[in-house]
Amino acid sequence: MASVTRRAHGARAQRRAENLAKLLDALEALLAEGESFTEVSVERLAARAGVSRSTFYVHFADKGQLLSELTADVVDQLLEAGRGWWGHDPPASRDDLRAKAETIVATYRPRAELMRAVIDSSSHDPAVREVFRALTGRYVTEIAAHIETGQEAGTVRRDVPPGPTAQMLTSMAERGLDRMLRGADDAAARDAVEAFTAIVWNTLYRDAP
C-alpha cells in the first residue's frame, strides 16, 4: 500500500509541475502581448495554458499563489547565475566580471516580463511581497559575505560597508535589469552587461589593495 501511495503522490506532483510549466509559458506570453498581471483573469490564463479552471484551483488558491511559486523558481535561477559571480573568488579582471555579468543578464532576460509582474504585484499583494523580499534577501546576505571575504583577502576595496553595499547593489540590479531588459534587443542586453560590469567593478574591485 505504501508504494501505491508514493506512486500516487509522485504522479500528482508531476502533473502539478507540468501544469505549472504550462501556466508559466502562458503567463509570459500574455505579458509579452502587453497585458498586465492584474488584468489577466484565471479563466484566460488557464485557457491559454490549456488547462481547465478547476485544475488551476486544484493547485493554486489564486493568481497570487501562482505568482509566488513562479517567483521562487525564477529567483532561484537568478541566484544560481549570480553565484557565478559572488559565489567564488573575486573576478580576476574586468573581462572576467563581464563574462559573469553576461550569464546573469542572459538568465534574467527571458524572464523580464514575469519579473515586472512580480515587482508590480509585490506593491499591493502581501503574500507576493513577503516571498519576493525573503528570496531577494538571500542576494544581499550572500553578496555581503562575498564582500567581507574579499576585504579580508585584500581583493575587495575596504572602504565599502559590506551590508549596505550589498543592499544597494541588489536594489540597483533589480530595478536596472527590469528597466533595461523588458523587450530588449541584443544591443540593449549588451548595454545592460556593460553597465552592470562597470558599476560592480568600480564599486568593489577597482583599486583594491
From TrEMBL:
Keyword annotations for this protein, in alphabetical order, are:
DNA-binding, Transcription, Transcription regulation
- Organism the protein comes from: Actinomycetospora rhizophila
Q: Does the keyword Transcription apply?
A: yes
Kindly indicate whether the keyword Transcription regulation belongs to this entry: yes
**Which parts of this chain does the entry mark as a DNA-binding region?**
41-60
Tell me which InterPro entries the record gives.
EthR_C, Homeodomain-like_sf, HTH-type_TetR-like_transc_reg, HTH_TetR, Tet_transcr_reg_TetR-rel_C_sf
Q: What is this protein called?
A: TetR/AcrR family transcriptional regulator
The HTH tetR-type domain is annotated at 17-78
Superkingdom of origin organism:
Bacteria
Concerning PROSITE patterns, the annotation shows:
HTH_TETR_2
A family per Pfam: TetR_N
